[in-house]
Design a protein that fits this description.
single chain; alpha/beta; six-stranded mixed sheet; 15 helices; 16% strand; globular
Length: 361
């Protein structure tokens, strides 16, 4: 029971931390690759935003930081030896139950990677003991880049919040792993999935083209819109939707909004609310008894969207909006829609878009 409670608390803190950092096609998971031993004479220089990294042979023991990078690595069919998440609440040395401990990606893990702590500040001690052949980090690790390079060759990729950024990051990681052709195949497959989804949703989009996407824990809390130059905005516009933005958008990536401004956005035919829940205590205290009639994954997903659902129902302003009156308001988790910006995440978003709008039509 204690381990289960730690798992649940880990979930809650991950999803909240991920949601608070937002301001910055169908892809079938590939078979797990067993990488060949590194050959010291097979070395090349790989350029990235923080410098150049010398890679010798094909790395076998990879430490990966964050959801985004983990999804990219798994989509290439490579398993991590160590993983650092957004917060280290688990307290275990390894991810012994990744399906429950790592949302949406854990079922693709065939190993139990070493828990390296938080992705922004991973444990240098654990990394040193692990002695990886490669560290895959992100822009949040820039300040510790020099220290990381003393442990192992380190590749840092840019923030994945902008459109097309995941494709660039995938190509960079694929170059390190010698999987360039596989990366291009993944990008092509995702583009084909977009075309397929656009065709499937053509009638629904024609009838209700304008879409508003808002992320928040509740309408009384901090809210932000999703803009067209973000990863998610680009994805939904690529299947035909037109994103609705505030009259004076803060940026093309997204803008903070208040409850009072929602009537000014009433041109939206449909609304998608990306929810997250800061109630870590409820997650920590959850037990197997809570899942009598649903899977743990379904319970966790419901728990993340319950606050925004409740505040939406209780808001007199929200109830006046056209999309609400016509039953075209949909609730999703920020973790699924805004954090998994990689081929696996795009698959999940496109599938749920079809579920919403094909069922509605």
């Amino acid at each position: 029971m204690a381990v289960w409670r730690r798992i649940m608390g880990w979930w809650g803190l991950i999803l909240f931390t991920a949601a608070m950092t937002v301001s910055c096609g169908l892809v079938t998971p590939q078979p797990t690759t067993i990488l060949a031993p590194a050959v010291a004479t097979d070395c090349r220089q790989v350029s990235h935003d923080w410098g150049e990294t010398e890679i010798c042979g094909q790395p076998q023991k990879i430490a990966v930081f964050g959801f985004h990078n983990l999804g990219l690595l798994l989509s290439l069919g490579v398993q991590p030896a160590g993983f650092a998440m957004d917060a280290d609440l688990l307290g275990e040395e390894v991810f012994e139950d990744p399906v429950r401990q790592i949302p949406y990606l854990g079922d693709r893990l065939t190993t139990q990677p070493l828990n390296l702590g938080g992705s922004g500040r991973p444990s240098l001690e654990k990394l040193t003991i692990m002695a990886p052949d490669l560290i895959l980090g992100h822009g949040g690790n820039a300040q510790s880049y020099d220290l990381l390079t003393q442990i192992a060759p380190t590749l840092l990729v840019s923030s994945p919040g902008f459109k097309d950024q995941w494709q660039d990051n995938l190509r960079a990681i694929a170059q390190v792993l010698g999987k360039e052709d596989q990366a291009e195949a993944l990008i092509a497959a995702q583009a084909a999935k977009v075309v397929e989804t656009r065709a499937a949703l053509a009638d629904a989009v024609k009838a209700h083209p304008k879409l508003l996407m808002i992320g928040s824990t509740s309408l009384e809390d901090r809210m932000f819109t999703i803009g067209p130059d973000s990863y998610l905005g680009k994805l939904v516009e690529s299947v035909g939707f037109e994103l609705v933005s505030p009259p004076t958008p803060f940026s093309t990536v997204g803008s903070p909004v208040s409850l009072e401004i929602l009537p000014e956005l009433d041109e939206a035919d449909s609304i998608i609310l990306l929810g997250y829940n800061r109630d870590v205590k409820a997650l920590t205290e959850a037990s197997q008894d809570d899942f009598a009639d649903q899977s743990p994954a379904d319970w966790l997903e419901n728990h993340q969207i319950q606050p925004i659902q409740a505040s939406w129902r209780e808001s007199a302003i929200a109830q006046t909006l056209t999309a609400n009156k016509e039953n075209r308001v949909y609730f999703v988790t920020y973790a699924r829609w805004g954090l998994l910006n990689n081929p696996i995440g795009a698959e999940l978003v496109l599938s749920q878009l079809q579920q919403f709008f094909l069922e509605a039509s």
